[in-house]
Amino acid sequence: MSGLRNAWRKTKLAGASVLALALLLMPAGFFDDGRSLCLFTALSGYRCYACGMTRALMHLIHLDFAIAWQYNPLSFVVLPLLLFVTGTWYVREIRWLIGRK
After folding, report:
1. How far apart are alpha carbons 30 and 15 in whole angstroms?
2. Which residues contact 5 (CB under 8 A, 6 or more apart)?
3. pLDDT exceeds 90 at position 61
4. What interhelical angle do 53-61 and 2-25 show, nearest 10?
5. With pLDDT > 70 as the criterion, what percentage of the chain qualifies?
6. Phi, psi angles (nearest 5°) of residue 4
7. Which of 6, 67, 92, 98 is most enclosed, with most CB atoms within 10 A?
């Protein structure tokens, strides 16, 4: 069972690493063209607090601060929190794999 658990943890770490690298390698405007997938906006016609967050975060990780602010100013709070939570998880998983529980 431990071998399967280790394999699953390694798979999650590899997947998260590939996803992070893919987002960094994509152009900043990759998600700019296209319609919103926000259910709240589709049902009500109004923008929610998270509308534009994907586009804003994509521009923010590419250091396009002005464009990120235009899409959603809340991204400047969300990105550091997201990096902290993801980084904490990543370190915990690696420590578990090398035996420092």
Report:
1. 20
2. none
3. yes
4. 80
5. 97
6. -65, -40
7. 67
Tokens at 14, concatenated? 């590899």
- Average pLDDT of span 45-51: 86
Half-sphere exposure of 25 (CA within 13 A, CB side): 6
pLDDT of 2 above 90: no
Orientation angle between helical segments 75-98 and 2-25, nearest 10 degrees: 150
45 or 88, which is more confident: 88
According to DSSP, residue 45 is labeled S
- Residues ≥6 apart with Cβ < 8 Å to 59: 28, 29, 65, 67, 68, 71
Structure tokens at 1: 């069972």
Are 77 and 54 a contacting pair, CB within 8 Å? no
Q: What are phi and psi of 16, to 5 degrees?
A: -65, -40
Q: What is the distance between the alpha carbons of residues 44 and 65, in angstroms, rounded to a whole number?
A: 29
Give the pLDDT score at 24: 86
